[in-house]
Amino acid sequence: MSSVVDLRRDGDVAVITIDHPPVNALSHAVRAGLKDALGRARDDAGASAVVVACAGRTFVAGADIAEFGKPMQPPGLGEIIAVLEDMPKPVVAAIHGTALGGGLELALGCHYRVAAPTARLGLPEIKLGIIPGAGGTQRLPRLIGMDKALPMILSGEPIPAGEAHALGLVDELAGDDLSAAAVAFARRVAPQRPLPRIRDRSDKLAPLRADPAKFDELVAANTRRTRGMHAPAGAVEALRAAFELPIDEGLKREREIFSRLVAGDQSKAQRYIFFAEREAAKVSDIPADTKPREIRKAAVIGAGTMGGGIAMCFANAGIPVTVVEKEDAALARGLDTIRKNYANTVRRGGLTQEEMDKRLALMAPTTDFAKIADADIVIEAVFETMEVKKEVFGLLDSIAKPDAVLATNTSYLDVNVIAQATKRPSSVLGMHFFSPANVMRLLEIVRGQETAPDVLVTAIAVGRRIGKVPVVVGVCHGFVGNRMLRARGIEAERLLLEGALPQDVDGALVEFGLPMGPFAMSDLAGLDVGMRSRRDQGIRAEIADAICDLGRYGQKTGRGYYIYENGSRTPIPDPEVEQIILDASRRLGIQRRSIDKNEILERLIFPMINEGARILEEGIARRPSDIDVIWVYGYGWPVWRGGPMLYADQVGLAYIRDRLAEMAARAKDARLEPAPLLRRLAAEGRGFSSLVADNKALA
Ligand code: 3H9
């Protein structure tokens, strides 16, 4: 008997139960146990039908991702699905939680599927840089049609059981008791012959065979945001095989593409980020039994761009949120923006009007600070100066309930100083959202010197509940993301002075895979933000300041590093900016030269990596992979490249060290000198990934 797969009889129905926490992934033991149990159920003369179910919180959530890249031990999933399809008696999958990837493929190998109404079904492989490898691309379109299957496979997004039922992916929705419903269903279909096998279906694909151009239209509509990625093209090729080839050839084609992608660098990077994302929320020096405080109600101070976006995050997760502003006019403006944002989503079909109304009803706008008194968590998102922050936290301290979590959304300022404005610094931490806060998934959780363990754990739990990727970081100017961004920004301005133009610099990063470069990003954020921050620190930036002096603050003024015509977001190079740059070079006596793409990339990315090394040394980030998660989820670093620290390892630290040393000498900038950690690892022939998960290992 297998320790992870159980076989029992419920009257004349054999019930196979997979019990492999946490998510019943199809690791080798599960596959072997399943094959064995299926064989015995087949040979059991007393069993007239079979149910395949799972214990714990979910049906099989996929292949075991940790096994990819290692030699595959038989039996493979494809083999098990073949056994399922050939069973001489009906097999019914009983689905609860999430049937994902190999889990859904397993269910597609069964003759029938019964699901709990709360279940979700999907093929998320694309998010790991691969495609379904056990028949998903061949069976799903045969069952529900290409127009439904292709978007599911290319987006990787699961669908709810109700929708799956309407599409015929699920045969029956269970009531409260899934097991009983599945067994009853199995008993009902036990006499059914021939058994329905998806592989034998062709009705749904017939229209495509007659008119293959329809497929190209579907592809065009579903591959708009796949720049640079290999997996979407692989998925399209496999899906094309579904209607062009007989199923066994299609399965073979799918398998070849899967094997190629799983061995490629992109999927390796995406799997690395999958695990890194989950690691990032773990804090090793906090007792494992630390319980988060209960969050029933939230409050956000400030209804500006950030405050409004943060309030939306809570309302989207069904958490009531009080939104506080100083004056009625600002409050009305903030609420109006929130309403417009929701209305846009409704117009695009991403939300129903009813759902929008429900979310708005969860928001309680007010100018009365006292209304935060019953909030379990308060997030401050007011103007970014220390004096204002201190004043707000002093006020919060006098009103908030004793066990409320008090968070600041500051993107640069010292959280410890802010905490000292209260008499309860242990309740204070940073929750740094990224703009637009209702869209960007990164949440830097800034742990102050005195932040209590349960406050930290609460912030992480809330972050996950509102759909964010929380990463715990320490206190320093700009924390992890913005501090590294600053290192990149300094070098970007130098590149302009030495000979490049904004479009050259931005173009190199876009080609690398980022959604935009530093100058387009500054235009989007508003150049006045950076200008104020530089002024506060007494720093000058020759070109940025000259552009700001002309009142060119970026997209919001229609002009910045680029021109934006008629409210468009498309940056157009501007000869006036070019002149400003040429003048600046002349003023500083710099001989301009042509700078190639490779140099631009190295000079933008290597200083970031160097700053990342310092951040690790200082213990501001606890793992190199935390930094990578921050860049993927907060700054649009292409997930298929895995993040800057992984990239550093791929390039080789010795090379980066040498280039940095050259840059430091040329610019006479000590900040560019290779960080001690980078030097040490390079000298030892190691990469950042050799540093284990706990920051003490960096010592
Ligand atoms: C595939 O199936 C390929 C096939 O087509 C072809 C085969 C031939 N493997 O996310 P959570 C771990 S590709 C290994 O925090 P939640 C996870 O690391 C796969 N481990 O829970 C974490 O570990 P730890 C397609 C996995 O409740 C723990 O489980 N499937 C896997 O927030 C809890 O995870 C997917 O891509 C896995 N497949 O969310 C689904 N899944 O506690 C990936 C999870 O040590 N999984 N772990 O940090 C998910 O989307 C979410 O985990 C799920 C639960 C929604 C299931």
Topology:
Blueprint lengths: L4 E6 L2 E6 L9 H16 L5 E6 L22 H9 L5 E5 L2 E3 L1 H8 L2 E4 L4 E3 L13 H9 L1 H10 L3 E2 H7 L4 E2 L4 H12 L16 H5 L2 H10 L8 H14 L2 H16 L2 H15 L18 E4 L3 H12 L4 E4 L3 H20 L5 H9 L1 E4 L10 E4 L5 H14 L5 E4 L6 H5 L8 E6 L8 E5 L6 H13 L3 E5 L7 H18 L3 H11 L5 H8 L1 H11 L4 H8 L12 E2 L8 E2 L1 H13 L9 H21 L6 H12 L8 H8 L1 H15 L8 H8 L16
Parallel strand pairs: 2-3, 3-4, 4-6, 5-7, 6-9, 10-11, 10-13, 11-12, 13-14, 14-15, 16-17
Antiparallel strand pairs: 1-2, 7-8, 15-16, 18-19
Protein model, in words:
This protein is an alpha/beta fold and 699 residues long. The chain folds into three domains: 5-262, Alpha-Beta Complex (2-enoyl-CoA Hydratase, Chain A, domain 1); 298-473, Rossmann fold (3-Layer(aba) Sandwich); 500-587, N-(1-d-carboxylethyl)-l-norvaline Dehydrogenase, domain 2 (Orthogonal Bundle). Helices cover 48% and strands 11% of the residues. The chain is built from 29 helices and 19 strands. It has an eight-stranded mixed beta sheet, with helices on both faces. Strands 1-2-3-4-6-9 form a six-stranded mixed beta sheet, sandwiched between helices. A three-stranded mixed beta sheet has the order 5-7-8. The longest helix has 21 residues, at 597-617. (S)-3-Hydroxyhexanoyl-CoA is lined by residues 22-23, 25, 58, 61-66, 77, 98, 100-102, 105, 124-125, 128, 132-134, 136, 275, 278.
Brief summary of the model shown:
The chain has 699 residues and is of the alpha/beta class. (S)-3-Hydroxyhexanoyl-CoA binds at residues 22-23, 25, 58, 61-66, 77, 98, 100-102, 105, 124-125, 128, 132-134, 136, 275, 278.
